[in-house]
Design goal:
single chain, alpha+beta, four-stranded mixed sheet, 4 helices, elongated
Length: 133
């Protein structure tokens, strides 16, 4: 059997109603669901019936959404990128310079400068001209 027979195409037509009262009055079988489209407004009703044929109705409004077009403000030009890159590198260099100056300034004038272990060890030994103790 062909997928798109005449009976299938007819059953796929939109079911149109004129207002809420028309949607409430739309006849349905038990345990069924249908989408009803308002004739004169951008509204859709979903009508469902339970096993006892009690209906429930929900209303939805269609709102047109614009197609997603890339916004020019979301992108940067090559010149803007180069300027940003330069600012970033300058900021990074400034941070390194500040870090280096802070580490050099960590020793206060009242605090003795700390030497490496070899320098301290050799300072404690006394050597004569020939390198003997």
């Amino acid at each position: 059997m062909p997928l798109f027979s005449a009976s299938n195409v007819m059953s796929e037509k939109l079911k149109r109603v004129n207002g809420l009262d028309s949607a409430k009055a739309y006849p349905m079988a038990p345990n069924s669901e249908v989408a009803l489209f308002e004739e004169n407004d951008d509204v859709m009703y979903i009508k469902m019936t339970d096993s006892n044929n009690f209906p429930s109705l929900r209303k939805f409004r269609f709102v047109e959404e614009p197609l997603e077009v890339p916004n020019k403000e979301q992108y940067v030009t090559l010149d803007e990128f180069k300027k940003f890159k330069e600012e970033l590198l300058n900021a990074q260099q400034s941070i390194w310079e500040q870090r280096n100056s802070n580490s050099a300034n960590n020793y206060s004038s009242t605090e003795p400068k700390r030497n490496s272990v070899d320098e301290q060890h050799s300072a404690n030994k006394k050597f004569d001209v020939n390198g003997k103790k």
